[in-house]
């Protein structure tokens, strides 16, 4: 994969992560008095860290983080988060799990492509992508745990 293609892929993740930040913050407003609301706030902070690290990597590669991520993603994330919150915490978390699983799938695909193109599994970029993948997996597991605890 050439540098421009890598920057484009990273911009996809940058937009995705910013979308998730605003999605979870909007949901947090609705559920702030519940444990799930606290979790959503914390997960949003972690997703913001992902966006920041991806933005830095894009700039390090000579690219510019997409305006789509900075302008459109927050609007989409906030709107979707507000709408999903109306369905209740359980349904919002179920949809969040699907979003986290999509992010994991996309991260896995990019990790494989980056490693195939010569960046070793221990490279800074691969570690960044793998750490983000693990965080997405943890978020999905935590959301599932909250759903399970509500049923008890």
From TrEMBL:
Gene3D superfamilies: 1.20.1260.10. CDD domains: Ferritin_like (cd00657). It comes from the Bacteria. Pfam families: COQ7 (PF03232). Coiled coil: none annotated. InterPro entries: Ferritin-like (IPR012347), Ferritin-like_SF (IPR009078). This is Cytochrome B.
């Amino acid at each position: 994969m050439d540098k421009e293609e890598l920057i484009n892929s990273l911009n996809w993740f940058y937009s995705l992560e910013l979308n998730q930040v605003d999605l979870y913050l909007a949901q947090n407003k609705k559920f702030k008095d519940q444990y799930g609301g606290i979790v959503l706030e914390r997960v949003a902070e972690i997703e913001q860290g992902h966006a920041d690290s991806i933005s830095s990597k894009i700039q390090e590669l000579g690219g510019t983080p997409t305006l789509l991520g900075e302008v459109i993603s927050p609007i989409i994330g906030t709107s979707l988060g507000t709408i999903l919150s109306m369905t209740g915490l359980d349904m919002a978390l179920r949809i969040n799990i699907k979003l986290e699983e999509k992010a994991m799938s996309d991260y896995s695909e990019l990790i494989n492509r980056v490693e195939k193109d010569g960046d070793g599994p221990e490279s800074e970029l691969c570690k960044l992508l793998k750490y983000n993948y693990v965080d997405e997996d943890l978020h999905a597991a935590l959301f599932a745990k909250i759903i399970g605890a509500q049923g008890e």
